[in-house]
Amino acid sequence: MCGIAGIIHRGNRSNVGGEMTSMLMALRHRGPDSTGFAVYGPPNTGDYVMRIKVAEQADMATGHDIKDKITERIAEVDRRIALHGAEILQYDAATVYALRYVIRPNGDMEEMARHLEEIESVEILSLGSGLELIKDLGDANEVGDAYGLNDFNGTHAIGHTRMATESDVDIRSAHPYWAFPYNDIAVVHNGQITNYWIMRREMERKGHRFMSDCDSELLAVYTAHNLAHDISLEESLSRSVDEIDGVFTYLVATKDQLGMAKDTMAAKPLVLYESDDLIAMASEEVAIRSILPQEIDTYDPYDEEVRVWQA
Question: Is 214 a catalytic residue?
Answer without folding.
Answer: no
